[in-house]
């Protein structure tokens, strides 16, 4: 394709720009580290309760994340960046309305998890989950629906959202993460928000 080298040049400049390069690499690497740690612990938790099928799914997620921590990280970042430039950078999919909805869901999920992190007793945490888990799941479902409305084209961004949606909504990944503690999830939410804002601000449509 004749235009491909120019697209590759644009992506290279995008990744190396002073506005995006440091936060892009730093946030993504931290996101991989936290996600790998969390999914590995979920796998161990499921093993301990005898859910070997669920543990295998979580371990597969952790394995894929681990591959992205070394040189594979740059390959993943490149694939995601190229997917973004090709399918979304010049489109109107990430409107202020959609972005506002995504941020609203993330903030609501963060607020719910913050309530949990303030509870010290195990009995209190169990009671909290019984009262609030369905609400956290509802917010997660809304968030995934919004993200899929943004990432409509087949590619690594949409595939990632679909994998997480399936594991959260059907595999109880959110419940297991909550059982392990809310702090890591809160950190992941903050990172996702930062990455999303960086992508949006880097888009040629953002200033229009």
What does this protein look like?
- By secondary structure, the protein is an all-alpha fold.
- Helix content is about 80%, strand content about 0%.
- The protein has nine helices and no strands.
- Helix 6 runs antiparallel to helix 7 and helix 6 packs across helix 8 (about 175-180).
- The longest helix is centred in the N-terminal third of the chain and has 29 residues, at about 20-50.
- The radius of gyration is 18 Å and the shape is globular.
- The two termini are about 30 Å apart.
- The model is unreliable at about 1-15, about 15-20 and about 205-208 (pLDDT under 50).
Shape: globular
Overall mean confidence score, pLDDT = 78
Largest sheet: none
Secondary structure category:
mainly alpha
Number of helices: 9
In short:
By secondary structure, the protein is mainly alpha-helical. The protein has helices at 4-16, 21-49, 52-67, 71-87, 96-117, 122-150, 156-169, 173-180, 183-202. It contains nine helices and no strands.
Topology of helices and strands:
Elements: H1 4-16, H2 21-49, H3 52-67, H4 71-87, H5 96-117, H6 122-150, H7 156-169, H8 173-180, H9 183-202
Helix pairs in contact: 1-4, 2-3, 2-8, 2-9, 5-6, 5-9, 6-7, 6-8
List keywords for this structure.
208 residues, mainly alpha, disordered N terminus
């Amino acid at each position: 394709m004749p235009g491909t080298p120019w697209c590759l040049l644009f992506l290279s400049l995008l990744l190396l720009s002073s506005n995006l390069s440091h936060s892009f690499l730093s946030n993504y690497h931290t996101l991989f580290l936290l996600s790998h740690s969390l999914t590995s612990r979920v796998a161990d938790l499921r093993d301990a309760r005898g859910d070997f099928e669920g543990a295998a799914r979580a371990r597969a997620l952790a394995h894929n994340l681990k591959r992205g921590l070394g040189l594979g990280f740059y390959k993943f970042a490149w694939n995601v960046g190229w997917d973004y430039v090709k399918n979304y950078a010049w489109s109107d999919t990430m409107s202020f309305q959609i972005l506002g909805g995504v941020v609203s869901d993330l903030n609501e999920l963060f607020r719910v998890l913050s309530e949990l992190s303030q509870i010290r007793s195990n009995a209190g945490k169990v009671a909290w989950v019984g009262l609030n888990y369905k609400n956290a799941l509802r917010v997660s479902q809304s968030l995934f629906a919004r993200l899929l409305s943004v990432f409509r084209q087949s590619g690594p961004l949409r595939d990632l959202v679909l994998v997480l949606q399936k594991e959260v909504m059907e595999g109880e990944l959110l419940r297991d993460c909550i059982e392990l503690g809310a702090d890591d999830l809160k950190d992941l939410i903050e990172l996702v928000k930062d990455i999303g804002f960086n992508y949006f601000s880097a888009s040629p449509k953002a200033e229009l």
